[in-house]
Amino acid sequence: MGELPDKRTAFIEWYLEVIEAAQLTDKRYPVKGMNVWTPYGFRARRCLDAVLIREIEATGSEAVEFPALIPSTEFAKEAEHIQGFNAQVYWVTKGGLAELDVPLVLRPTSETAMYPIFSLWVRSHRDLPLNVYQIVNTFRYETKTTRPFLRVREIHFFEEHTCQVNEDAATARVASNLDAFAKMAAALDLPYLPVRRPEWDKFAGAFYSIALDIPVGEGRTLQIGSIHHYRENFSRPYGIQYEASDGSTHFAHQTTFGLSERLLGAVVAVHGDAKGVVFPSAIAPHQIVIVPIPAAAGTADPGAMAEGIASRLRQGGRRVHVDATDARPGAKYYFWELRGAPLRLEIGRREAEQGTVSATDRLGRKSTFPLEHVEVEVDRRLADFDRALMEQATERFRASFAYADSLAELAGSTQIRVVRWCGGEPCGRKIEEAIDGSVLGIPEGPLPLEPRAPGPCIACASIEGGAWALASRPL
Hints:
The protein is built from 13 helices and 23 strands. It is α+β, with helices and mostly antiparallel strands. The strands form five sheets. Strands 9-10-11-23-22 form a five-stranded mixed β-barrel. The chain has a five-stranded mixed sheet with strand order 16-15-17-18-19, sandwiched between helices. A three-stranded antiparallel sheet has the order 4-6-5. The longest helix is centred in the C-terminal third of the chain and has 26 residues, at 374-399. The protein is globular and about 80 Å long.
């Protein structure tokens, strides 16, 4: 592989080359936007899923799995939802050679698959809360340019669906999801902003939507997840109601929380560099790669020592790979830097004779330590690597934002702009036209900038009811 394009000024070109060179996916499958998970990419995906499962189950959510095919009669029950997804749906109209009486939708998301069953599961207040999740593939006929992990037609998808007793309980579940994602993102060393989307950009059928956004490239953003509060917008058409303790009947309030393989793309986008992918240790397919360097006959055997170290490290649950190929050491170093292994251990004749280990992390920091302490020293270096990775990512994250005080400042912006907005759609549309992008919405937390005194709306100069909002060009 030659020199990679510049990540900041040619982000998409850099990203596509890195994904392919690191062998995370194979896009040569003959259906556009449906890519093959390679062994290395699949390992990373499995590690990512483990993080999501750990944190969502810590909140009391339980795993389910619903069918992929949805009857059109159920899909059509929530009018705003079908309007939002109809153009992206794959339809199944035949079973063998026979036309189906009821066409089937290949799930784009699972509200319309799950909620007819929820109406059977939820009958009493004792059935609430219902908090369930699944990790499945969803399908959307994406008409924009497809890109591995970021925009695909077959999506590896995590989705939690819940039913709550009332609006306050649903709001509390949204807060619980935000807390769970904060822990997921911390494991990925991934800074982000939760942003409440404007009315015209919320999920079809939602009361409100909170997106989870990160900066990528110059002035661009990537939505890596979303959390939605539905109120009764789905429970009414699907008949999800319960009997309260006083005998009265109520419709459930619902929420959803969605993430996808786009998170893996986000890790590549945020942490990757001029050498390739950089994996945080939580989802690295191989947390430690050991490279034995052949020695002359009759001397200590680096290969045997490498296998012994690997065995010790694996006993503690660490993911270890010994590169025993016949490639030259320099080629191995290059290969595992490209693939983002957090920590490389090198065992040559000197290390084998002295009982030491030479270590280099993916950020290029070198050290040596005694073999007898290998477990403790490896864990220490991985933890230090993750801290440094988060610090680097946070520094770049903060540098990606800047205030703008006029519409003219938005044109050609290479940063995500923080603007004062009155909240009205006409002004929002003016901001979007000026930046040639979108009003992402209002952050659900502190801005990554020094605080400023409130000012007038950037579009209409009103000082009434304004808030800080984000504007960018979504990827």
